[in-house]
Amino acid sequence: MILSAIQKALRAEQLDGWLFFDHHQRDPLAYRVLNLKPPGPVTRRWYYFIPANGEPRGLMHRIESEVLLGLPGTHDTYSSWNSQIDKLGSLLAGAKKVAMQYSPRCAIFTLSMVDAGTIELVKEAGVDVVSSANLIQQFEAKWTAAQLESHLEAGRRVDSVRAAAFGLIRERTRAGADVNEYEVQQFIREQFAAKGMVTDHGPIVGVNENASNPHYEPSSEIWKPISSGDCVLIDLWAKLDQDDSVYYDITWTGFCGDVPPAEYQKIFDVVTGGRNAAIERVKAACSAGQPLCGFEVDDAARGFINQAGYGDYFVHRTGHSIGTEVHGAGANMDNLETHDERRVTVSTCFSIEPGVYLPQFGVRSEINMFIEDRAARVTGEMQEKLLLL
Asked: pLDDT tens across 134-157, in order?
């Protein structure tokens, strides 16, 4: 934890402080931002308040009095429920507006870690609670230079695995040999391991109507064969098998044959057009030094697809933050599932992945974008043409 940086950010946000709260390690964001590694189980409630100015203050149960060990500031303990309430008031003395891991109306549900009852306790102490969304993005979603390099290297490796997977499909289908979704998925997993990469689950390998399920994954029990004339979608994500590395996450599509159906080609063009509209929106705002919110990026992609007449078939957000977890803690490119007003900030990365999902097939095109000072870039290879397998 870099206390001076947090306090500077609090002053910039015009907040009196940031109140962290947890029990049973339910808020992973708190532990990562504070760099807190409890020496044992966390079965009781603890609080840690970082004021915009001055010394931090902690409060924890007497039987877990070392839970905040190593964090700067004064630490106090409680035992009874009424002493907890009294000491929480003292902890927050002088504060009028503090940030917590809370999102109004649970708009950003991945941030909403604090329960309603705890919010009520804080408000009863005379303190207004606001969302820590902007702070979390600054201290959780921003990459270091080493993380960017890990992403770029993961991208090179993932791109090579993606090419090999489509190559396997091409070789088998052109020879009339058997191949199926699950076999290709396992081929990708084996290649990841051989290239020193890890992933949390997946990848997605979907044929025809299975490609219209954005979260479809084949298994040893459920899979479809891949044959000549089929449409194929592969969504794969991985990171280097090393500490603090970050993910690379892409989706490509192809057709098993030389002449794709006209409708499939049309949908591919619509989807990549929406993707490119979002990319250009990001690049234009960054180069001009203009603020840009996640919902505006979604509007760019969705507007293009709506105008083409396929808006009803674009059923998810345009993109998500990327970090040490494939779905990171920064701004999402979203004005559908949520209205994400978080700003796109320097040193963060996110996906742009619009899709159109018809009953007979689905198309998604996904790239990753990294934000630099007055610039933005796609960090890996980008599919411009439908793959003919």
From this structure: 999 999 999 999 999 999 999 999
